[in-house]
Please model this.
Amino acid sequence: MTDLSLSTAAVAGLRADAIVVGVAKGAQSGGSPVVAAGAEAVADAYDGSLAGLLETLGASGAEGEVTKLPAPSGFKAPLVVAVGLGAGPEKGEAWDAEALRRAAGAAARALTGVKKAAFALPLEDAEAAGAVAEGVLLGAYAYDAYKESGKDEKARAKSGKAPLAEAVLLGGKPRDRAFKAAVDRGVAVAGEMNRARDLINMPPNDLFPASFAEIAQKAAKEHGLKVTVLDEKALTKGGYGGILGVGNGSARPPRLVKLSYTSSKAKKHLALVGKGITYDSGGISLKPAGHNETMKCDMSGAAAVFAAVVAAARLGLEVNVTGWLCLAENMPSGAATRPGDVLRMYSGKTVEVLNTDAEGRLVLADGLWAASQEKPDAIVDVATLTGAMVLALGSRTFGVMANDDAFRGAVHEAAEETGEDAWQMPLPEHLRAGMESATADIANMGERMGGGLVAGLFLREFVGEGITWAHLDIAGPAFNEGKPFGYTPKGGTGSAVRTLVRLAERAAAGDLV
Model:
């Protein structure tokens, strides 16, 4: 990952390959771009003509826009990179943290192949410093483990495609505890988001339930976490019919991984449950052509949970956080679960499987019931669960459902605080009737319309009585099939990691549940 530091050095004398400055849109429609705070010394070196030069080059200050120009005379860095921040804040107000995060990410992406860059963006407070740190580290992310140029550092450098190697945040306060803590937090959270991205991008021939479990065990040893792995024999003995039913069709058997971070000062316990379908073919209800190519990302929920637990450990949060990774590969074979089969879940409840491509809710049901046995203060599950949620909210927003209105609101607030797009969704009781089964206690499918809400209602059936619970359907934002934007790359995004970490922080502060 990119090396990152705070500095109060004078920008002109800094030895770097590029200087990044922020540019805002003019106050009036069609107005000239405005150089943002933090870049005063750079603007002065152009004799006040930097904004005009940028406008001549076509810059407007629009969000994510990147414009490069030669550095002014006397600077040791040869290049200035101006990145658009969008509309500026109201007079007297600070820049929005997410605007800074996105701008820093866009600039970092534009600096691929560059060794060292100095960021002269608005760092008015510690929160801004943390946001810029996150943006730089997330924007500089690249996944090239399977490319020839990704084999070693020399090959990457020679290709000119190596991520930004070093970033210096100018205008920060290296000796200020708040600034240092914010940057350290940004480094930890971005690092774990990038861990989740790596897992999501890993091809399914290398990432399958057993190998995912091994990766979790290695991380647990490194960060002082307790880990328990249930293999297919333990799952059978324990009666985990949902996870087993989904994994039966694969030559690679399922796993349930429990990761536990504990703090001696904890007063709250937060449980996180992640859907970890390492590849989803749809099973016997096979997906049509054109829908299989990105199904390695169907374990994004488990990746987010894994990353969030490790982040809690890295940050030393005063809360107990338990992660449950429900890992299976959904494949068609002679041993696969068939539409019409009935599974007896870990809770004892029976489920008639009407569609084997509605498998995520089956593995989560076992994970939710397992998490409920420990009586945590709250459970949050995360899953790339339904295409219906993508139709409802698009590709950048995840849905939030809960059995408690106040908790649903708290989860939504946590997402907003960290810059993740989320929207509160209901759990209409009338949709529950569509899952009635003549054969079993419940069916895994209900009405087609409102399918994302139906899935949430199904999951609610497997949450222990009296336990506060929320469900995040990240099917839209978990995997970016389009062009990179801001700090978001093509491929795995690490969606929901920041929200989960903020929930853990709020639980530690005693203001979550």
Q: What stands out?
A: The chain has a mean pLDDT of 96.
